[in-house]
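[Solved] Which block belongs to which protein?

Original post:
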Amino acid sequence: MKLAIIVPVAPFEPREVLIQSVKCLTELEFSGEKKILYVVDKKDERDDRCKMLRKFGVDVLERPHSRGKRAGAINDGLEYLKDFNPDFVAVFDVDSRPEKNFILENVKELLKDDKAYISSSPRKIINAINLVSKTVEVEYDLLNYLIKKNGYKQFNGLIGVLRFDLLNKYRLNEDVITEDADFSTRMHTYGYRAIYCEKTFVYEQSPISWTEFYNQRKRWYFGGLQLWRYRNIVSKCKNKKFKYSWYLALTITYLPVLMLPFLPLVPILILAKFRNVKKLVVVPGLVIYSLVLQAASISALISFLRKKNVEWKASRRVC
């Protein structure tokens, strides 16, 4: 079997994080032929990140533009990989830090199910350094549980292992702001499935300020509103579990203040999960979290109704 790994790199990603990324990904276990491709949107002619990456022996595709942003970078990466023609393609962000067995375990799951288009694993936060990131760390525990039970399994960023033929055939939509949710919706309506593999995991970074968190989630909420273009197709889908999960994801999540009455139960749940009193620091963080989410939801809705696109703003990386 052959595997390709695609890592889209935005102009603002720092060299230090790229170095950590390539060191991690080159150590991933895989028994077949493997090619690692970084698709780099260059800042300017002085941008030497491509030269630096090539020293690690990985493939680099330079883009002098940011057409389609992340979706465009992955689509261009797929075109680059056509001659290699891998069986599977793994997609990671520059802050993704998968366990060494991540590829192996997710490929195993895909081989068990011909109708599965992606297999991915629980996410964990690697930079839980302040109230914001520690709060997101708790959120991820809830999201991991919901994804496991959900009929609409949406892995942020499509971080995971996908069948190359399906990703290459259907490609990512470069005209939407959340290409991952768009692709996942389409694939579910085509009758394909997403697999949640609990035998491994992947670390990633959280926003480290409430402003960065707000900007990220406003973008996600805006992308969710764009998904309503598929409502007629989804309504005709025979997979009822997916259909109901999809509708819930695009409605109830836009009212995060509904969580506030349940916050008194949070300390009990946190202690039961982590068995660490220090984790209770996130209780006030969850109050702020709910209010910031609600503000992001309302702002995204206003922008959507005004047909005003949401700007993609960078989050700081912790090296």
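(Second protein starts here: sequence line, then its structure tokens.)
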Amino acid sequence: MKKSIFFLITLAFTILGGASLGIASGINPAITTGGVMGISLFMQSQKGTIVMAIQKEIWVDYIIGNLFKDNEFLNYCFNADAFVINGTLVHIPQAGSASGVKRNRTNLPATITQRQDVDITYALDEFTTDPRLIVNADTYELSYDKVASVLQEDLANLKEIIANWMLYKWAPVGATRILRTTGGVAAAYLPSATGNRKKLLVADLARAQRLMNKDGVPKTDRYALLSCDAYAQLLLDSTFTTTRDVIRDMNLPEGVINRLYGFNIMERATTVIYNNAATPVVKLPDPTGAATDNDCILCWQKQSLEKAMGTTDFFEQIKSPTMFGDVYSSLQRMGGRIRRSDEKGVVAIVQEP
């Protein structure tokens, strides 16, 4: 019934529009009306094609718009999107070291040197979702909210996996960039970890601050990312009940820490995991758990870390003859790095057994 009414209304407006166009242009109204009706019928015949293009655009926009949602920490770094080539590769021209300077030079002629420029190049990782079958997917294309609900779980998982790998790429490996927790012992809280670990203290963040100060990196735009367990542990530090200056940076009724020792405090379910080697080694995301797993608090200055987003794509197979529905999947290229080879500006506070 609704389709019939819509057809009649469309037909009436088409005839009226064609007749008006004929009168205004001096062309026979019958000819202009026929032309307008022909165009309308052609557009109706192409409706499926138009719908598919709009649908894909909505999905791509949704992925881009929500990629960093719930992973806010990814916004606080140097953005290298402008250096992405073909959506797959990052290429950053980088100047070599400056020339030397001598006071009251006595040896002449001076030694001639040439600056050695080194380009930074790295490939972006490709993250793809498993294909998802959706029945009657065309019913979702008119509502953004419904589009978001169809593959919400898949895209949430895509975001989470990308964020985990970015943290892995941002985790320092040098012994001088890794500190250990120094509080009293408590039972390990990571899923596979056993035994005890030293608690995270406010003083541990103070040590990270001193190390970054020695690095000479800016004192602004510093961040510390804690797992929810480390965050809860930090709240139990007696410093919060004895030091007035620290309490100013807390929302005591809500149990929220805003800033500590120059770091903007951020919380996430998990961060990165290090093993318990003499110099702890960061583990790959989603590894097999181990008894020696140690949690990490990642501290950084905004210009010390980098992220780059490449190709975002969405794939669809409409009316699959084998799946009896529409099949969808998505692709996102993403990468990042610690910007300095000496890793200055980045500190990992790793649990101490």
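Accepted answer:
You had them paired correctly. Confirming on the second one: Residues 1-11, 41-54 have pLDDT under 50 and may be disordered.
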